[in-house]
Amino acid sequence: MTIILSTLNARYTHASLGLRYLLANMGDLRDRTRLQEFVIGAKTTDVVEKLLAHRPRIIGFGVYIWNVEETTRVVAMLKRVAPDVTIILGGPEVSHEPEEQRIVQLADYLITGWGDVTFPQLCRQVLNGPKPLMKIHAGAQPPLADLALPYSLYTDEDIAHRTLYVEASRGCPFKCEFCLSALDKTAWPFDLDAFLGALEALHARGARLFKFVDRTFNLNIKSSLKIMQFFLDKLAAHPDDPVFAHFEVVPDHLPDALKEAIAQFPPGCLQFEIGIQSFNPEVQTLVSRKQNNDKAADNIRWLCEHSHAHLHVDLIAGLPGEDIASFARGFDRLVALGPHEIQFGILKRLRGTPIIRHTEPYRMVFDPYPPYTILATDRIDFTDMQRLVRFARYWDLVANSGRFAHTLPLVLGTAPFANFMALSDWLFANTDATHRIALEKLAALVKQWLRGRDVDADAVTTAMANDYAGQVNKPATRTKSPPTGQAAPQRQARHLAA
Question: Which of 214, 242, 260, 269 is most deeply buried (CB count within 10 A of its CB)?
Answer without folding.
Answer: 214
